[in-house]
Amino acid sequence: MSVLQRLVPYPELRVLISAGASGIGAALARAFVEAGAHVHICDINEDALADFRDQHPQVLATKADVSDREAVATLFRAQAARWSGLDVLINNAGIAGPTGGIDAIAESDWQQTIDINLNAQYRFASHAVPMLRQSRHGQVLCMASVAGRLGYAWRTPYAATKWAIVGLVKSLAAELGPEDIRVNALLPGIVEGPRIEGVIRARAEQLGTSYDTMRQEYLKKISLRRMVTAEDVAAMALFLCSPGGRNVTGQAISIDGNVEYL
Question: Rounded to whole angstroms, how far apart are CA atoms 15 and 18?
């Protein structure tokens, strides 16, 4: 097999992506569809699911709240019924969580961030691993963040979950490696799109400055002085699901232009 051939994803992978109807999740889903995978997405947003289904009718699109364990169980039953197994789980679902000092963050907001960003990754992995054991290319990709390697003032719930995801990944990689199941974390940096716009706006309000000023401050944190795109993240996921990534596991891989600080 040539080097170029090793960069092509394994054929006809069965891929499940949480929160796959918009943002990074949708970019991941589109990339795997283009690579010839059998893709199943879930999302809580019915309109986004309908739009994605219209554009990609071959994709199985299921409404599911990742914080609802019964909904997650139903989702995996649908996966088994449609494709009789799973090769790649992409734990993508997450929320930005609140912006504020630790003494101002409501406990309900803290708990919601932990439940969606971290506990949902456990729920999905616990259902996926028995199916991945039957795969020849079993892999889990967990969406963390550059906030999983750097401190992030006024975003403590979010950062705490992303650091925890890296710990989850490294532990699962050691646990599942003997069964030839690979587990890696993707750490996107500052990703273009509506979510980061909302984050920047909230941070600007927290510090009493303008949106434009805060946006420039964010760009100054990046060595390449530009945001990454959702497609950049999808490209890394495709590589990890190719023969070229077969010995990559237990890694927290940044796709961020080298964010120096947050």
Answer: 10
Do 38 and 109 belong together in one domain? yes
> Which parts of 94-193 fold into alpha helices (H)?
107-114, 120-132, 156-176
User: Do 200 and 71 share a structural domain?
Assistant: no
Strands 38-43 and 14-18: parallel
Nearest to 91 by CA among 139, 44, 48, 46: 139
In a domain, 180, yes or no: yes
d(CA 83, CA 68): 23
Q: For residue 261, is it within any domain? A: no
DSSP 8-state class, residue 251: -
pTM: 0.94
Q: Are residues 215 and 137 in the same domain?
A: no
Which tokens sit at 7? Answer: 């960069």
> Is 83:40 a contact under the CB 8 Å cutoff?
yes
Q: Note whether 7 and 242 are within 8 A (CB).
A: yes
Tokens 């010839």 belong to residue? 36
Structural domain boundaries, residue 223: 191-227
pLDDT in tens, 37-79: 999 999 999 999 999 999 999 999 999 999 999 999 999 999 9
- Identity at 22, one-letter amino acid code: S
Please report, for the chain, how many H helices and E strands are present, in that order.
9, 7
User: Residue 52: which H helix or E strand, with range?
Assistant: helix 46-55
Amino acid, single-letter form, for residue 85:
G
E strand intervals along the chain: 14-18, 38-43, 60-63, 88-91, 139-143, 182-188, 252-255
| 179-230 pLDDT, tens digit each | 999 999 999 999 998 888 988 998 899 889 999 999 999 999 999 999 999 9
